[in-house]
Amino acid sequence: MDINNWLLEWLLTNTNICEDDYTSGQYDNFLEKRFINSFEFYRLITYAEDDLGICFDEKDFSNPAILTFEGIKSIIHKRYEDKSMR
Asked: Where are the domains of the chain?
């Protein structure tokens, strides 16, 4: 699964972000930059868990990188790989 494309497709469909913001803002805190809001973040987490069959844990949410596109991609990818290993 290509997590980058999965995430980009979700963002373009469910938020007001444009592809340029996504590409140029990979390491920016997307809440602080107002690329997405907290409700959209919650929806993204819920959708990832439902669509990909993954589970985030407390460690994921305490990691500040979860608030960047690169960080959340990495966490989703790790959770998806962990799921595949079971």
From this structure: 3-85
